[in-house]
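INFO batch 0412 | record 1 of 1 | parsing
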Amino acid sequence: MKDKKMDLDNAAYEVFSEYGYKNTNISEIAKKAGMAVGSFYKYYQSKEEIFLETYIKENERVRKQLIDKVHWNGEPVDVIDELFTYTLESVLKNKILAEWNNPTISEVLHKYYYSEAGTSNYTFHQFLLNIFQERLNQEKYGPELTSKLLKVYDLIYYIDCHITEKDFENYSETLRILVKYFIKGVFS
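INFO prediction complete | emitting tokens
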């Protein structure tokens, strides 16, 4: 028996990948999945809901590739450069992930990724927290200072979940500089 939800999810991925969020509608997704629009609503309440699920899956896929690609044991500033370069290249070329800065849907994405479920289920976020904490332990920072530095990481994550290019000109590059010099100060 065919899994209609999987067909719908695959269709959504294809359509969002080709047209982006704004230029996609539910009827296109349903048609691509070979079902009626009414059947869409058996699985999802809205375009926002299916997009969020599509975004989460695509973000996990791309971030898994990033985890495998970056040389995490390198010099911390080089790791940050590698991380941001890969992220910017992969996100800008990906119509699904590029929606992070789209005012039409970014609030839904940011709200999810900053929620308790979003932060705990986001493999990449948890991976970065662990890497950062391991590096702090290697540098023999005490628990109190480690806790304070992890709070700065939380602040950077908060900023990324609440600000877009629309809100702050050159946001991506500014965030890169902030993170780079924060890491440089911590590990020099």
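INFO post-check: The mean pLDDT is 94.
INFO record closed
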